[in-house]
Amino acid sequence: MLAAMAAPVLFAPLDSAARDEISIVGAGPAGLACAIVLARAGRRVVVHEHQNRVGARFHGDFQGLDNWTGDCDVLDELRAHGIESNFEYHPVRGGIAFDAWGRSYPYTSSAPIYYLVKRGSDPDTLDCGLLRQAIHAGADVRFGHRHSANNVRVISCGPRAADVIAVGYLFQTDLADGAWICFNRELAPLGYSYLLIHRGYGTVASCIFEDFKREHLFLERTVDFFRKTVGLRMEAPRKFGGYGNYDLPKTGVEHGSLLLGERAGFQDPLAGFGIRYAIRSGILAAQSLLEGTNYNSLWRHELMQLLRTGLANRFFVNLTGDHGWRWILAHRLATDDVCHTMRKLYRPTMLTRTLYPLALLLHRFAKGRTRDLLTRG
């Protein structure tokens, strides 16, 4: 659970002038969560979104709202901070995982492992649900509007760089509901491929952590794999793609503005899940502005341990590759309650604490090399 902490003051409580308007750049889950909390506390909030609609980055694709990076159910956590579940969601309590050799591992959980949510501009998406709540709370959301003034208090305009990409298809199908995942470097280098189907709609994708230039090859291999193993049939497929950014930022404040979600690098380095991290950061930013508490202290208390452990785990699976994933599937996910296992996986251990400094060093080296290549290009 998120909680306000007794921390050094970074921002003084909002004075009368600041209460006239709090500007937020970006109408993603983080920015809208921040707007909801602030508006319900009686503050005047203006959200500036340069796209002409909410959820413009997405097209109805399924994503997961994780239920393992907290001690309570994620929907209860949101509700405790005044954010309702007025969007379509579906609890996923099990599925089938495949290793690189094609062996299947059924997995189950007593609690939802994650909630399947839709992203995009349709009325039933997470994005539209949060937008409705923000407007109902009194926030002024302005689309097609770029904000360049100096009084921006919150920036939540998406990832700065691509540390992970997902490329896939959205489609209709007559297959039964299900969740499938495969860990095979030939299908998704250092990542995973997945297939999600719910009520006749599906998303199939390759989630890639390196070798981005061959993304289309990996996607076609992924589709072929699920055709052979699950009997995947797609009708009216539509291609999509997106990218994410994870980091261990030294600060969540830039030129006096609070950075939220992937703009700050708040995403799970291991699994690539980021929605819960983003919404948490929005709530924490609102708490910082309302109470005058230190935003850096807040996010470090709530997110830093998760980010560090995730990065250490990412280093471990990169090092061990397909064999490491096979061991995890056979000895952890397929033999225990998965949500319980995932929660343990995201708690620091002696191994992750030992691996973290090297993981961080290599991560920053890789980011620097990527920046150099982009600059030369």
Features:
377 residues; alpha/beta; FAD/NAD(P)-binding domain; TATA-Binding Protein; 3 domains; 6-stranded mixed sheet; 10 helices; disordered N terminus; disordered C terminus
How would you characterize the overall build of this protein?
This protein is an alpha/beta fold and 377 residues long. The chain has three domains: 16-57 and 73-86 and 119-161 and 245-302, FAD/NAD(P)-binding domain (3-Layer(bba) Sandwich), CATH 3.50.50.60; 164-244, 2-Layer Sandwich (TATA-Binding Protein); 307-376, no CATH class. The chain is built from ten helices and 16 strands. It has helices at residues 16-20, 29-40, 74-80, 126-137, 215-229, 261-264, 275-291, 295-333, 338-345, 350-376, and strands spanning 22-25, 45-49, 62-66, 89-92, 94-98, 104-108, 114-118, 140-143, 152-155, 164-172, 178-182, 192-198, 201-208, 235-244, 253-254, 257-259. The strands form three sheets. Strands 6-5-11-12-13-10-14 form a seven-stranded mixed beta sheet, with helices on both faces. The protein has a six-stranded mixed beta sheet with strand order 8-2-1-9-16-15. A three-stranded antiparallel beta sheet has the order 3-7-4, with no helix packed on it. Helix 2 packs parallel to helix 7 (275-291). The protein is globular. The N and C termini lie far apart (44 Å). Residues 1-18 and 370-377 have low confidence and may be disordered.
